[in-house]
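Review box. Two proteins, two foldings.
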Amino acid sequence: MTPQMIAHICAFVLYLGFMVFIGVRTMKKNNSASDFFLGGRQMGPWMTALSAEASDMSGWLLMGLPGLAYLGGMKEAFWTAVGLAIGTYLSWLIVAKPLRKCTIAFGDAITLPEFFTNRFKDKSHILATILVVFNILFFTIYVASGLVACAKLFQSVFGLNYHVGLIIGFVVVLAYTVTGGYMAVCSTDFVQGTLMFIALLITGCVMLFVLKGPTEAFAAVSNFGTRAMSGEFGDIMKDKFTANQSFGVTSAISAVVWGLGYFGMPHFIVRFMGIRSNKEIKVSRRVAIIWVIIALAVAVLVGSLGTVYLPQVLDATRSETVFSETIKLMFPPFVAGIFLCAILAAVMSTADSQLLVASSSFSQDIYKCWFKKDATDEEVLLVSRLAVVAVAVIALVIAIDETSSVFKLVSNAWAGFGATLGPLVLLSLFWKKVTKTGALSGLIVGGVTVIVWNKLPATLCPIFGVYEILPAFILNLVVAIVVSLAVKDTDKEIEAAFEAYKALED
């Protein structure tokens, strides 16, 4: 074992030990389901902002997005980043404060399915049940993407077998999510968000300095593209750069509409519910958008400059390790080990949040509603922890395939959440007349459209080349509105509660 490897291992062990310590330490603070799932709505603005963004920007920020920029050039990666930045800002601006107020006004709901049950007075719990099914389906895919990123990281840094790295990531994420709950997730995400930001910023700046500034750096990147087109780096690289050259309107739209996902990303918008005061949301929004813009810009930059900074060429299967390979080359071993933990931080900060939201949805909205209505908080917490394990195990099975792409898995899950939950959130917060039947119809249409659209070949019709989140989001919204107007199953009590929520002080 080389000294460099030993330094990397020491850094990782220290980091992982610290994360598990936070989880164990906060375990004793979980005295109720509200504490475990929402931290008692006592999170401060900085922790809320950084934990929200860290949980949102999973392994795809430091692996998937740089890998996309490395192989395909900056066009698709750039427009995807633009869409995400816009979506982040609009979600904080439009959804954050109303969602916190509305969840409190409608029965002090601590999960989104519970909120929708109260919002629509759904005594049958059908809406919440279908929503939980979609949540668990897409969360499992999303968690799988994180485990894939984890496995590729350990493979890149330590030369471990892919499946060994997969098991290590699985065990660590599971350990502190099961023990600590929401408070542990937010605390670790704050640390991890800070580490991700610092690692990205320093790496990007050093790359620009070594490559003699932006002008010369991007000239060199352009030259790399020309060489790839000539076939020097193989047919796979040539195909990627050819695709980038033909990047058109459809591709740009597909990239930008990633921003729609933020209106329905459960592990992201649940942070709005947990902040301790509406007045602190403005501070959180400013911190979050600054973090996001810089992090996305530098991630795209690192991926693009990696084509000329790294002495070796990464093929399509290794392109998502461009950030880790850059760090290994750039810094002394122990410092590199700490910065490489930023990738692990990105994976863990998202996977823990997703596991927590999925488990809370199952325990509160399936177990307590359908199996044991009088379940105690202790029983709900136990079921939640078992649900965390179950979802993680299924995600592990999905992630076993070594050829899995982090970006592709995230893309599928992102569309699922954005197109099913997003329109439902917006209508619930801003339209008094939306009905349970309308919401349920839109939810089903949106979810089915995501699954079906993804299977339709663009060769059949060019419109099928558009990212599935856009048509599914639109159809969900239109169907929900039309059905709500046609089937008016609201009552005066629901409308009165809506008016009371709107009248609450900010």
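Next protein.
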Amino acid sequence: MKHSSGMVYRMVVLLIVTSILLVACGSQPAAAPAEEGGEQITQVGKIGGSDRADQEYVWISQFSNLPLFVERVYPGLDAFARDFGVTVRKAGPTTVDLAAYIATVEQECARGPAGIIVVGGWDPALTEPVNKCIEMKVPVVVTDGDLFQSNRLSYVGTDWYHLGVVMAEAQIREHEALGLTAGQVAVISPIQNENMQLSRQGIKDTLAGTGIEVVAEEDNDSQADIAAQKTAALMAAYPDLTGMIGLDSEAGPGIIAALDEAGRSGEMIVTVNEAGREFLENIQLGKVHLITMENYDIMNYLALFLLYTYHNDAIRTAGLDPWINNWMPQSVDSGLVLVTEDTVGDVMQFMLEAEEKSASEE
């Protein structure tokens, strides 16, 4: 009797376990059918899953079609959209129009997208619209210049103070290489931009006590033609000027245009920020000594990853709602690429191949 009861008991247990396993297997997300050609199978609820395909993320800036953005920002945004199976849209005025930029941020937030990237370095006035987005519980990550007083969830981008330090260090090296124990340098950048203010402070702090003096800081309003005009005026006002520093993408072309016009190309120590692949040729021509390149592709891909993870509630610290306990890092330094005479050939070749590949895929 005991043997018979034990056998029945074991059979009942086996049936129960089998039923549980069948139910568990049946509750798993169903895999989407593979496409012809052996494409990777996606699952609902996973990266690239069909239930996430309607998620839209928006990158917003003024001067949104700036060639530098098109060449260096857009590829990172497009890569994320491709890799994660979501939509990443570019928005914002195509001119330098702060009022229109602020209005665009507010309008996009009102639509309730999955997440927004705001290019914050333009002006601290962007703080208020970013805070409005957060109040509406629209996730916002700021890039390419922080908004320090805003409630953005994170900043992913360049450490602009460090960029200024790098510019100043290059000026020091080049002055020493020429046997100069003193010098006068001028800085051209958009004056009101918080990120540019940080860079200018980094320059002055690094040059302090070196004998190299910052004699002028001029505003180019993010326009190359204004940068050229200001450079020409500086050369007239400071005949002993030994160096020029350009901090935004339009300052460099303006500086070089003015030096070419005055027949002084190669006479000054010039350190500037990037302005596209063709501008890099100025290093090979001896007109520029250093070009800093921001890691735009990295900063925007990482920013979108943070927003995607946040929106899909993939991570919770101690089980707390992210809107109560924001888990995002306060800031992420996306770093710099330093282009010099030694590295310019490799960088130009890479950018050329990337352009050709992009053109062939269109």
